[in-house]
Amino acid sequence: MITVILAGGFGTRLAPLTEHHAKALLPVADRPIIDWIIERIPSSKVFLSTNEKFAPDFEKWAKDRPIEIISEKATSNEEKLGAVGGILYVIQNKKITEPILLVSGDNIFDFSLKDIAENEQNIINLLYDIKDTEKIKGKYGNARVENGFITEFLEKPQNPVSSFVSAGIYYLPVSSFAYIKEFYESDYSDKDNIGSLLKWMNKEKNQKIKAVIKQGLWLDIGSRESYIQANQVLCKQDLFVSPSAKVLNSSVKNSVILKNCHIKNSEIEGCVIDEDCLIENSQIKDKIVGKGERIINRK
Q1: pLDDT tens for residues 38-47?
Q2: Which whole-number Å values give the CA distances from 164 to 44, 52, 84, 293, in the listed order?
Q3: pTM > 0.70: yes or no
């Protein structure tokens, strides 16, 4: 079994933060998201699928690590292959002939993946028991499970059928590869959603999707709020301030302040402040401030 980490997206919901950083390389508690993922990967052979824009950053990160970076030829969100295209590109480019553990590059989790058997014949979708169905509404992919198998997929439902959400982790046996190719080359429009692929394989190709349900820590990082929350959970405090940032005579709450920022005589709440920013005599709330911005006397 090999592992493929999908990191080919452009993180548009986190712009302008992701204009200069791949989402998987964003720091959470002063470590890149991808570092938190890698320490949970059970297989020794790991491919990371990304895009042409951020491939050099991942190459730099992967130096001295036994991880191969595979870059699709995309430099913008409009050009990307999508999640399904990304995994197909890896399968074809590297001529993969063994099962794949597929992991999304923007989730942090603390549960083990060692219980996924390499000789499993069924497709597996890891589900996280979020406990509270109110948290699912309009936000997460939801699944109905019967006798250990998924019988219904719902994309961000307003009326969830269970407390199970897709954890962005999948096991794909070799027998599923032909279906991935067929789906990607079909007229189906949602090629950026592995859940849509699994739903199609289940309904159109009669493929059973086994559910493996996990509990513990799972953080899906896709928005300003969830990025702040991930830092809060792993830092065990209200905010994260990079050791190289300077905060003088200011109030900072519920925020993330990255490298080399200088904040003086200001009030910051619910914000992500990217690297090298200068903020003086200002009040900022619920914003992402892009790299190198200068904000002076903004009330």
Answers
A1: 999 987 899 9
A2: 29, 34, 22, 40
A3: yes
